Amino acid sequence: MNSPNQKLDSTALESAWRRFAEFDLNAAAAARYHKRLREVALGLAMVAVLFAVLTGSYNVIRFVPPYLHFTFSVALIVILIVNFIILALVIQSHRAAAAAELQAAAQEIKKEIYLYRTIMQWHDDPDHWLSERLGHIQRHVADSMGSEFSLNPYTGPLPPGYLPDDPTSDPGFTRLLPNDYLRYRLENQIATYTSELADPQKRRVFLQVGLLVTGGLSLLLAAIGGQLNAWVAVSVFAAAGLISWLEPRQLDSAISNLNQLIMGLNIVKDRWQSLGADQHTPEEYFKLVVATERIIWSHYNKHGSEMWRAVDELRGHSRDALDEVQHLSAVAALPAEPAPAQPDTGDIEIVAAKIVSIAENGTEEKPDSAPAVVETAPPALPTSAAAPAQGLPHAFVVMPFGRKQGSDGRWLDFDAIYTGLIRPALEAAGFEAFRADEESVSGDILTDMFQELLLADLVIADLSIDNANVFYELGVRHAIRRRGVVHIQSGRSYMPFDIFNVRTIPYHVDKHGRPDAAHLEKDRQLITKITRETWASDTDRVHSPIFNLLQGLPEPDRKALRTPLATGFWREYNEWKERVAIARRQKRIGDVLLLTDEISNPLIKEEAIAEAGKALQGMGRHELALQQYRRGLEINPGNTAFRRQEAFHLNRLGRIDEAIVKLERLLRDMPNDIEAISTLGRIYKQMWNETWENVADLQGRIDEAYKSSHWLVKSINTYLAGYRLDQNNYYPGINALTGSVLMDYLCSRQSRTETTPDPELDEIRQNLPKLKGALQFALESAIARNGSDYWALVSLAELEVSHADDAEQVTRAYRKALTAARKNAANLTSSLAQLELLKSLDFRPEFVQAGIDVLQGELNRVKSEADSEDSGSSVSPAQVFLFAGHPIDPPSQRERRFPAAMEKEVRQKIEAALAQHNPGKNDLAITAGAAAGGDIIFLELCLERGMRAEIHLPFDEARYIQEAISYAGDQWVERFYTLRNSPNVVIRQQVDHLGPVKPGDNIIGRNVRWALYAALVYGIDHTRFIILWDGKTSHTPGGPDSVLEQVRQLGGRIEHLNTTKFDYWKAEGKVSRALDILTQGL
User: Fold this and answer.
1) Distance between CA atoms of residues 130 and 26, nearest Å
2) What's the number of CA atoms in the CB half-sphere (13 Å) around residue 373?
């Protein structure tokens, strides 16, 4: 929080002042250019009339030499041509409209600057708010003016027009208190309007005199008659020119408007000054700023009623007071509570707290006898709004911006319709609503818009007026996506022919073109209902008229249409990939999960989930990979790869029946999916393996393997079915070959001969030579194409195991495969498992052992290197303890939760909770911070037991110490440094591992989710959650209650240390009475 009159070191504010100066400078230049053109055109017209008189009047011709008369005639023609060119320039020039547009934009920026310097200083992130508003205004200017209009940059000082020696001149970079705002903004604006009023008044006087003189002269000359008719024409033209140039009605309107503005601002000023000192409350200051800015903006927004509505709101007569400001700044009206007229720094903090409370909750928090509020950190820690729900479907709104007029003459306020009707309806339906003007990233806006139309789960198009941009964008969506479109409209009796048959949802507006309050709730519910139904409809349902009419038209591959210009979409994915790659190398599975969870764009999220699944599979976390793929199927149920991976990980987790059902259903839909067929073959092979692998006796294993060989035969046939579809896909081929060789071997090891031939076995034996030749050719071809293909190399080595004549051939083949292994322990383990299966059946023991020796030696080296790099940190803990709880009460806190005197009992309670599980050096403690109080006490107790500890910090250490520890005293800071310097403690900073917090998210809530994921990756059954909490709900991101709710949803084990039941509170009353008696005695 900045103190009053302190300079605001804000890049956003500097950019806003520079953009204001640039727009204002170019607006003035455009206006001057247009004015000069009109002046030159009028002057040339008057000269042309004069030359016409000189060349056409008999009285003049008699005294003019012929050459001079000829010169006048030529000059007349040239002047007329030049004048026509200038008139064309005047007509074609957009400078007048551009000047008005730029001036309005400049004043809107100035309005936002003063909101930023006053009431928005207590916003969670005023710089982000100002940057978004600035981008919003610039996009509107670019949209209305087009790209051909270039702006000259402003290179002067900032703010423009600031005079350091003038006490009434606004320095521009300070926070404004009421008296400052009154002097720099309100009174300066009154002086400006008073000065501007003088010019139209002078012009009106000049107009009246000019009309009187020219009109009288024309009458006089007409009365004299004779040869003066031409001069009559000159005077009449002059009078007409004055009328067209000075436009008396416009002057009267301008004078009236300025007078009303001055009057309105004076009303605001007088009202503030009439209030007593005890009435100068935050609410009144809020109203002062809002009313002033609305009155000033009404002059440039061309809506005079806005000014008087602002004055009415100031007096308390308007039923929707401050609605526009709530839209602009996301803060609501403040309650009336006395505050000093010119508060000092401490008073400003009180005002800030009230504004933040109302901005977040809609009302001011008032203490009662038993407030149910939980602080998870001292007041200095951020307490912004809760993070939005992760992973919501994305809805893109296609509609006009601002106020637009339809063909029937109605005006519609589309910004109010979006904020008051469409966005709330979409959010109620479970969507994340988005409109093109909300794009805050730097990139190509047009390209980002196309990406939205391509990727958004749902597009809602407002067809209330004939807007070219809306129809164009709707056509793009209809052409590239078959489903996910909703059409709405207000008061329209017909639709253009091409979309006359689409279903539209009607909504109601009032006379101002805003959502009609009488129908608002029903309209919201209807849009919510239809959008939910559209989203939940069958994935084969077609909503686009193009795909309905053109049967057989394929929907384009969304990934193939990706463009690098759409930075707003793909930068998120690229940054995610970089951070996940780092997390994988550091084996930080929790980071992978949280980073994937934060991806919002649906298509990017699909790719992110696929990458996360691969990363988790590579780290052997099949249960977490399964969770990711199932979340991906919620986004896109038709994703074949996710369906296949779901079955694969179900099988790896031992849920074989579920895996088979999933694969059989997938193969009904996609009968030629080779990967699904191969996974099913692997499952049948595993079912065969489970029938005999636990038999201790070798011959008993062989006999049991033969008895259950029907599963092996089914596996072979399944693999062969996949290999026949594509003989370049060697994975099902090598598995079919190895299975066939094993089947032949098992038959040969049987003591009795079958009397009846087995046709399946005969077929397998007949196919073996052909299968070996085809597979060997496929493998050698794959290696020729890519010599670093590990799986091709190791499959060729496996082929040598079953067919080589010399064990050395097997050794060479496996050693060659190691050149492409890249020290991947998971791949080596998988290849080794196949050889161990053959060894357990005593199949060609010399050749199998040759392969095992090579692979086992390499795997031992890889693990040894990994262990030395990790220094033991990779050992999975037996138990994980996650802690959350109250910090020490700060001095300013009215409600006590953890008084400093209660520390001894808190320590005893936490120690008792730990002792129940007897943790030791093989266990891990995790906290979302190390705040003075519960966090530090818990960590100290864990280190006393020799446990390892991970501390997740939301900020850098210096800031965290300042905001969460130092308030409690230097001894707590020393205790933190003691923890930090322990060799058993690892401190992780959020920004380093996860990157900056996303807009709208809460850095404390994110930190808690991060710590929670870090604990849960070890398994919910291994995690214990200890919470030091008074049991009162806070609804605060990162609060103990929010963590408790998440752990409960996951079925975790919880130890709740309820601070309200501690002995401290029972003894406190007696001690307090004793102290009172002692005090009275003194």
Assistant:
1) 22
2) 17
> What distance in Å separates the CA atoms of residue 876 and residue 583, rounded to the nearest whole number?
17
What backbone torsions phi and psi does residue 1028 show, to the nearest 5 degrees? -100, 105
DSSP letter string, 344-391: -HHHHHHHHHHHHHHHHHSS-----SS-----SS-TTS---PPPPPTT
> Read out DSSP for 64-118?
S-HHHHHHHHHHHHHHHHHHHHHHHHHHH--HHHHHHHHHHHHHHHHHHHHHHHT
Torsion of CA 750, 753, 757, 758, to 10 degrees: -10
Q: How far is CA 568 from CA 346, 379, 461, 634, 822, in A?
A: 41, 35, 22, 24, 35
Judged by DSSP in three states, 877 sits in: coil
- Rounded Cα distance between 958 and 978, Å, is 15
Asked if residue 159 has a cis previous peptide bond (ω within 30° of 0), the answer is yes
Whole-angstrom distance, CA of residue 235 vs CA of residue 78: 22
More confident residue, 944 or 1080: 944
Q: How far apart are CA 752 and CA 1078, in angstroms?
A: 103
CB-based burial of residue 321 (10 Å sphere; 0-12 exposed, 13-18 middle, 19+ buried)? buried
Residue among 858, 788, 867, 798 at smallest CA distance from 825: 858
**Structural contact between residues 172 and 159, judged by C-beta atoms closer than 8 angstroms:** yes
Spatial separation of the C-alpha atoms in residues 760 and 748, rounded to whole Å: 15
Predicted confidence (pLDDT) per residue in 384-413, tens digit? 333 334 557 788 999 998 888 887 788 899
Reference 717, options 668, 693, 684; nearest CA is 684
- Residue 598 near residue 390, CB atoms below 8 Å: yes
- Give residue-wise pLDDT tens across range 943-955: 999 999 999 999 8
Contact status, residue 1006 vs residue 954, Cβ threshold 8 Å: yes
| Local confidence band at 255 (pLDDT 50, 70, 90 cut-offs) | confident
Closest CA to 1027 of 1019, 1038, 1013: 1038
Q: At what angle do helices 282-301 and 95-117 cross, to 10 degrees?
A: 180
Considering only CA atoms, which of 1015, 1040, 1021, 1017 is closest in space to residue 1030? 1040
Among candidate residues 622, 626, 619, 611, the one with its CA nearest the CA of residue 578: 611
Decide: helix, strand or coil at residue 432: strand
Q: What does DSSP assign to residue 335?
A: P
Nearest C-alpha neighbor of 778 from the set 739, 822, 851, 724: 724
